[in-house]
From TrEMBL:
This is Cobalamin biosynthesis protein CobD. It comes from the Bacteria. Keywords: Cell membrane, Cobalamin biosynthesis, Membrane, Transmembrane, Transmembrane helix. PANTHER family: COBALAMIN BIOSYNTHESIS PROTEIN CBIB. The keyword Transmembrane helix applies. It is a multi-pass membrane protein. It comes from Marinobacterium zhoushanense. The chain crosses the membrane at residues 49-70, 279-301. The keyword Transcription regulation does not apply. It is found in: Cell membrane. HAMAP family: CobD_CbiB (MF_00024).
Length: 304
């Protein structure tokens, strides 16, 4: 049943995309901002404890509500599909990437840079559009698609919801700035934890859907150099699968950061944005085929 529900949610996402009005994550973001303004206090220990309290207050109630709803007769199936639908973001990923591709094709570098800055936390004036966009597509494929699918298969709609809410809080608070260094610690560590297995399965999927040998080699040799335990495997494998080189000096909020080089090949070009999207889409088909196959095997074993 979970495999069919996952397919239905993916179809909804590809067909309708994210809700344009009354998106639950918009309200969630407002609640997160309100709580952060009132609890982000104190030094290292107190700040981390209050950050953990904030994550608990924001994530636990909606997850428990979702857990109750999915166990209601008839309503449970609908809630499961709708929950996974709004936690998925492949359509949104396309919607953000396509205008960048169009702007580059029209030679509007300034517009392409502005659009790219909207999907990554880098300084607009200095970002390399093609590299930054490809990195964002690969990493968001893991965060906005495969992480939610993994936790849906493991823990149903409540699992997918918990993953997406934690990932959203990490995007809001998981910075090593003075403001969020301690308060955002819990959100960042929890995001690393819930993304640990999905990120590696995503990296494996990218490798199988692209240049497998090169992707696995880049993953093995380069991923550990990245400061994120999950983004490293995903981007190293994705870059190797595409045959491009990602990483390098990157400016965040006025500060230059020496990012490790990942992948093998030349710098990404405009056409590599579309290739990155296709890689994520092929990987999604592979995941769905694997999920359906595992569900079928399970049914056969239960029948025997």
């Amino acid at each position: 049943m979970s495999a069919l529900l996952a397919v239905m949610a993916v179809v909804l996402d590809l067909w309708w995309g994210e809700p344009r009005r009354w998106h639950p994550l918009v309200g969630f973001g407002c609640c997160a901002q309100w709580i952060e303004q009132r609890l982000n206090r104190g030094g290292a220990i107190r700040g981390r404890l209050l950050g953990l309290v904030a994550v608990t207050l924001l994530v636990l109630p909606p997850v428990l509500l979702c857990l109750w709803l999915v166990h209601q007769p008839y309503l449970g199936v609908l809630i499961s599909v709708l929950t996974l639908w709004f936690t998925l973001g492949l359509n949104s990923l396309r919607a953000h990437a396509q205008p960048i591709i169009y702007a580059l094709s029209e030679g509007e570098l300034g517009e392409a840079r502005r659009l790219t800055a909207r999907i990554c936390s880098r300084d607009e004036a200095t970002l390399e559009v093609e590299r930054s966009a490809v990195e964002s597509i690969l990493e968001n494929g893991s965060d906005a698609v495969f992480g939610a699918l993994f936790w849906f298969c493991v823990a149903g709609a409540p699992g997918a919801l918990a993953f997406r809410l934690i990932n959203t809080l990490d995007a809001c608070w998981g910075y090593k700035s003075e403001r969020f260094l301690h308060f955002g610690w819990a959100a960042a560590r929890l995001d690393d934890l819930v993304g640990l297995i999905p990120a590696r399965l995503t990296a494996l999927g990218y490798a199988l859907c692209g240049n497998t040998r090169r992707a696995l080699s880049c993953w093995r040799l380069q991923a550990s150099a990245h400061d994120s335990p999950n983004a490293g495997p995903v981007m190293a494998s994705g870059a190797g699968a595409l045959g491009v080189r990602l990483g390098g000096p990157t400016r965040y909020r006025g500060i230059w950061v020496a990012k490790p080089y990942l992948g093998q090949g030349g710098s990404p070009r405009r056409e590599d944005l579309q290739r990155a999207l296709r890689l994520v889409e092929r990987c999604l088909l592979l995941w769905l085929a694997a999920i359906l196959s595992l569900q079928l095997v399970q049914l056969l074993l239960e029948t025997w």
